[in-house]
């Protein structure tokens, strides 16, 4: 499935940001990876309503946008882990603010505590894309 973009003729930074993270899965993936690197199977288990195909596509897009690192290990069976780049770590306070906004705007709803770690470890190696 082709990636859908919002037209951005004036190069608005908000529109650009929403084109990168503005679907229902990417913020959830970033949130889960804020607690450390994970393998595909664990991400899939923690987001039971996402199909494997969609998860694969979302991970590829996040990697292409420079928000995820994909590390392959030369093992049998093969192992791949996903972790956040420094760009993605910079988004965590924004995701935290969105969570706080929901708590304030909808006080009658009983939300689970948002477990975005504020002081995320930086990636072991610096691989900034774009």
From TrEMBL:
Domain of life: Bacteria
InterPro entries according to UniProt: HTH_HxlR (IPR002577), WH-like_DNA-bd_sf (IPR036388), WH_DNA-bd_sf (IPR036390)
Short name of one Pfam family: HxlR
Keyword Protein biosynthesis set for record: no
SUPFAM superfamilies (alphabetical): Winged helix' DNA-binding domain
Record's keyword terms, sorted: DNA-binding, Transcription, Transcription regulation
Positions of the HTH hxlR-type domain: 12-110
Entry protein name: Helix-turn-helix domain-containing protein
Keyword Plastid: no
């Amino acid at each position: 499935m082709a990636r859908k973009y919002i037209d951005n003729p004036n190069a608005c930074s908000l529109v650009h940001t929403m084109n990168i993270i503005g679907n229902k899965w990417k913020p959830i993936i970033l949130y889960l990876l804020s607690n450390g690197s994970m393998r595909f199977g664990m991400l899939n288990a923690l987001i039971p309503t996402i199909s494997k195909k969609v998860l694969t596509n979302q991970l590829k897009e996040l990697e292409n946008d420079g928000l995820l690192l994909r590390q392959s290990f030369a093992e049998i069976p093969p192992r791949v882990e996903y972790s956040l780049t420094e760009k993605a770590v910079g988004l965590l306070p924004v995701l935290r603010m969105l969570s706080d906004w929901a708590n304030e705007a909808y006080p009658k709803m009983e939300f689970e505590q948002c477990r975005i770690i504020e002081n995320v470890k930086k990636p072991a190696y610096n691989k900034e894309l774009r």
